[in-house]
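FIELD: query
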Amino acid sequence: MRLHVIGLALVIASVASGAQAQVTYTPAPPPLPAQTPAPAPAVAPPQPGPWHEGDPVPPGYHVEGKPRDGLVTAGWITTGIPYFFSVIAALSASEQNESGWLFIPFAGPWMTMGRRAYSCNPDAQNQSTSQSLGCVADVFVVMGLIADGVAQAAGGTLLFVGYVATKPGLVRNDEAVRVLPMRIGTGMGAGVIGRF
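FIELD: result
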């Protein structure tokens, strides 16, 4: 009887060990780290519609004095075209007869006109044909210098008014760098403002 009990115990033990051998324990996967949602990309504020002084300021914008685009564009064109021809004239004359002054915007035509040597001599009684032609050429040169100087001065005036007499306009808050007209002492100048 004892032998049967030991045999039965061995059978139960072997069945139990076999059952344990068949059952495999797989540990649970480790929990995933908490994932924070990716930050939403910075979205620029929507472009506002037409804005007039006194209207409410949309979020993401502020009011700032802005140059007058029409005057600034007209000023650059009115200054640039005659100045381009001044530079071409100075280069073609190889900077002779004070034409090197034409490289200076605004004042160049007037300096050239005042400092150049003219071939006309009103006191001479008997002028040769070449001197007479030189007089005619001088008249055209002076007329061109006057037109050039007046056009550059008009363009400079348009630029000055366009940049100094600003108008209120909307500017986005996240603009990095801007060049603005500023009061410097008792005069006016330009300043750079940046947000980083």
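FIELD: remark
The beta strands are 61-66, 167-172, 177-184, 187-194.
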